[in-house]
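Lab manual, section 2.4: Encoding a predicted structure.

Procedure: take the sequence of the chain (88 residues), apply the prediction step described in section 2.3, and record the output as structure tokens. A sample record is shown.
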Amino acid sequence: MHADLKEDLSQLATRLDGKVSGDVFELRMKALERDIATTTARAAEIEQAQAERDRRRAADHRLVLTALVAPVLLLLLQVYLGARGAGA
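Recorded output:
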């Protein structure tokens, strides 16, 4: 019985050595929460930057379209008015 008790205490001591203290666990959880908050903030910043790039890209497309279409329309209007004026 004494050997049994000694073996059980030895196993219990081994299990307790493997356990993490409450303070260490609390510190690890706080660090994990801080990491999650930091990652969430970075993800929000990345999403905001992506939205800004998309907005700029759309504005650039409108600018390119305007830069190409407006001169062609003005040229066609001048040709039309010139042809109309020449025939009158």
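Check your result against the sample. Helices lie at 2-18, 22-87.
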